[in-house]
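Hi R.,

Here are the chain sequences for the assembly we discussed:
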Amino acid sequence: MTATDAIYIVDDDPITVFGIRKMLQSLYPDRPIHTFANGRQALDAVKAASDAGNLPEVIFLDINMPIMDGWQFLEAFIRLPIESPIRVNIVTSSIDPFDYNQWQHFKSRSHHIIDFRNKPLKREELAAIIRAA
Amino acid sequence: MFVGNILYVLKGTIEIPQDFLLRQLPHPTAVLNTRLEFQTASDSWFDFFGLLRRDVAGKPILEIFPESSPEWRQALQDCLRGKPEVSGSRHFIHPDQKESWFKWVCSPFFDTDENPAGIILQISDVTEGVKQEINQEKVRLMLEAQSENARIGSWWYEQHSGMLECSAMTQKILGAGEAGITNMEQLFLYFPGGFSRNTFSMAVFQAMESGRPWNEQLELLTPCGKELQIIATGRPIIKNGRQVGLLGTFLDITEWHRSNQKMRESEALLRTVVDNLPLNVYIKDLDFRKILVNKQECRFMGVSHPDELLGKDDFELYPEEMARTLQQEDLYVMDNQKTILGKESLLTKKDGSQTYFLTSKIPLYNEEQEVYGLMGISMDISELKDKETELRNLIEVTSQQNKKLINFAHIVSHNLRSHSANFSMLLEFLNQEQGEMEKRQILGMLTQASDNLLETLDNLNQVVAINTQVHLEKSAVPLRKAVQAVVKKHQATLARNQATVFTEIPKDLTVRVVPEYFDNILANLLSNALKYRHPDRDPEISLGVEKVRGYTVLSVADNGLGIDLKKNGAKLFGMYKTFHEHPEARGIGLFICKNQIEAMGGNIKAHSQVGTGTNFKIYINDRD
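And here is the predicted structure of the full complex:
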């Protein structure tokens, strides 16, 4: 079970997905990028990857999504038996204190590196995130 | 004359021994010789002074009465020189300390040659007379003191002479001058003209004519202008069966009258205050009966006169349950001598009407410090209570509005920010992009972003419109007809989905709604039932109705996919929350429904089971 350098983008907004993907591709043209329209799809993918031993290194996670939102995804994700820490970046346009508190809550409960960022993500920011991973 | 009799006896021819005769004289009499030595005396004389014959025989009289006055000695000497009947009086204390007063008379007696041969000393006991005189003086002084203290003056009118005699106290009360008052006309003038003078003069004349006594409370006006209150009494004086005059008295009661008046005034003031307080005031005795009630209490109990409440206990005035509670309170106050202050209580009257009171109950003590009852003071705070409830409701509404507003602000902020984030990102790409193809793709996305923004603004506008419509025009709508109209309108869509609608709503049931909102809510729920239909069966939608505490509840139950409310309940009616992967799920319909039903004073709730179906319940407010 070793981490690959794959990157997940979980967002139901095609424009955001397009933007992040475009920036990542220009920065790291060789890294595999997978996109998911909601938490359920992403969770299924993570589970499959965990079984296959090719977990992603970084996840970009939107909060407001249909079927399973970002928080519901995190709730399930941190319960998965994954030992190596994965970098999860919550990317949202929300400034609701509720969401901020939720982030703090999850951060304290997990060994994964959970970060909170506001949209829009800048190219330099992305570069820094990936470099840190 | 008496002495003459004795002389006659002494000189007479009756053969009775002289001494024997003398002894039996009823009047105490003694005989002295010229040397003023005691010769003999009557038994009554010895009795009077308590002396014995053998002790005094031959002794000079001045030795027998050593403390005799010079006046008496002089009288005895004068008598020996022939002066007849010298008299005087003296005080004598008997050996047994008894006090006596006596009068004495000394008369000389003569021998055959007409020379003084001795003195006859006669004594008469005047003790009774003197004692009476002293008593009379005592009575006079006592009367004077009494009339002074009680301020009772008296007057005496002699009918035949028209003379009026006033006692010193009368003069003093009337403030009469030196000249005094000597006739009735003068006395009348001391009464102020009008009632007092008329009453007094009438009383006097009637007493003169018919002997009728009187007793009147009248006013007096003294010459120096002092107003007095007096009680004038009077009655005729009858002597030998004939009316000879009038005896009258004046009792000065000015002071008493004044303090009495003051007391009555303060009593009246207290009564006025108690009666006009905007509080219910009552006093109860040890048997819990009301013994005083004020006007407010009468008004509250719906009676016109206190008599309708006095003497009654709470069991006669309130429903039994209420009366028992009240009596327990009373018992607590009187038994423990404890005060209840400002207790909030709800009072139910016999007619069922209820009033909120702030009640105080205070034990009342008599002069021996024993509880004899209690005083109750209650303030009607119903209006205050209503205002409080109103205020609380208002606060609740306001805080709910506030919560909604904050929530809405977050929704707006979030949505606008997400769109603007996309714009800024896409614009940056456009700026840096060289390839025409790529540029065109980004422009297409910008157009898409712009459309999305417009749609979002449109949705937000709808929500704002619902929430800012202050005066909603509700109207009474027959529920079954309204439901059937919506179903008919969507008949084509329902048919396309092979859906069946069951309606079970009473024909005559009406609800007060904003028809436009109602139609939208129902249309939304029908459309959701079709949108989230179960892939394995044809949609069935049941419309039913029930009454729940002030609400008419319309239920819209489907047999669709259902939704996990445990996971998503909180978000079901949120904006842009979608739970199914449906291309038309926009996450705005239920959010608007909720806003619309809440704007009508109602509510919407969902019950659901995944795989079985969902039941939406629309609570339509029956009031207003």
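Residues 7-132 of chain A form a domain with the Rossmann fold fold (CATH 3.40.50.2300). The longest strand of chain A covers residues 87-92.

Let me know if anything looks off.

Best,
T.
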